[in-house]
Amino acid sequence: MKPEEILRIVDAIHRDKNIDKEVVFQAIEAALVTALARQYGEEADVTIAIDRADGRVSGLHAGQPIDTAELSGRIGAQTAKQVIIQKIREAERDAIHDEYEEQVGMMVSGVVTRFEGATATVQLGTQEAILPRSEQIPGEAYHPNERIRATIFEVRKVGSRVKIILSRIRPQLVQRLFEQEIPEIADGVIEIRAIAREPGYRSKVAVISSDNRIDCVGACVGVRGNRIKNIVEELGGERIDIVRWNDDLQVLVPNALQPAEVDEVILCQMLGRGIVLVREDQLSLAIGRRGQNVRLASKLCGWDIEIMTREELDQQIERAIVGFSSIEGLDESLAEKLVGEGFLSYDDLSVIEPDDLMEMGGLSAEQVDAIVAEAENRAQQAEEAAAVERRRQREQERIAKATAEAEAADAVAAGQTSEEAAADATAPEAAPGGPS
């Protein structure tokens, strides 16, 4: 190849493929070395260098200069071309990989081109990406030519191609949407400190403002809720709670559990657990549907949160002191210390750090090992008993349901309506001596 031809090829590839010129020069040099190795032998010591300024090719074989005319004659044109094309494809793949690797966690917009086998193929400019089922929001459906937004979750090389995997279930998507819809976050006046998300159902976003004049929660909600409404619509109706961040867990935990009202937060430092006391009428609200509210609050705060009423806590404390005191080597005084640190069950005690227990009770290593082993044994027995009780309750429910259905069927056969039969089958029997 002539020097001017090499420069022209390098420049054309640089412009068309957006590949750095140095990468193209190196690819051509590697291609020429490969082509010469087929002439001199695979073990031959061959080096090739291309002058970046004028395109001249120089080479060494076993330390001796290779004549440029001989070089051109020895290299098969087709072989060189094939190797160069391969090297350029590899360089192009690497350039695409590096470009999208830098965007992992960032939000992109693309058009759905296909939806096959629950996997959506999305066109991102000149590149194709996939949105697998595992990264889709539950319940969402996608259609060809539909524009969607997602975050880049993973980028990896697969042979000569680059596989770009998108996601709509990661917390980063919520963060990027907040940055896009709320100027104060994009400007850095309001900061997102933490996000906890259960895709398609509910998210909690903790925010804080560096300017006391700006209400971080109000700014995120927007006038008449227009800002948060846009984000909720993009996420298919996913509920979003905006939480005011505070470095003090005594403040943050109640904020995270909103809209429930919290009476008291007891922090158990050794267990990394917060016991939250609420009134009876706030218990179900604090826990949330299927435990969702407390689960998200725990993720947001980075602490395990246990919800209970004052009466439940008192009962657990009493049971724990009695139970711990019955373990050989663990007296009532130490049991009260453990309860004061938040250890309320055998399961809690089984995971205590031995050094902490030795320090609290002035115990030897052998005594601590025996106490922990006994706690583990009792925790396992309690779990087995709980499993038996759950099975018994399920069996009772199954029998009760079958009985009710049979009685309803008999009543219908006797001419009674199914509604009357069901009401009779489920009506409580009066206890002897009147209502309990």
Secondary structure: elements and pairs:
Layout: H1 3-17, H2 21-40, E1 46-50, E2 57-61, E3 64-65, H3 68-74, H4 77-101, E4 107-116, E5 119-124, E6 127-131, E7 147-158, E8 161-167, H5 171-181, H6 183-186, E9 190-198, E10 202-209, H7 216-221, H8 226-234, E11 239-244, H9 249-256, E12 264-268, E13 273-277, H10 283-287, H11 292-301, E14 304-308, H12 310-325, H13 332-340, H14 346-350, H15 354-361, H16 365-413, H17 418-426
Parallel strand pairs: 10-11, 13-14
Antiparallel strand pairs: 1-2, 2-3, 4-5, 4-7, 5-6, 7-8, 9-10, 12-13
Question: Nutshell version of this structure?
Answer:
The protein has helices at 3-17, 21-40, 68-74, 77-101, 171-181, 183-186, 216-221, 226-234, 249-256, 283-287, 292-301, 310-325, 332-340, 346-350, 354-361, 365-413, 418-426, and strands at residues 46-50, 57-61, 64-65, 107-116, 119-124, 127-131, 147-158, 161-167, 190-198, 202-209, 239-244, 264-268, 273-277, 304-308. The chain has 436 residues and is α+β, with helices and mostly antiparallel strands. The model is unreliable at 429-436 (pLDDT under 50).
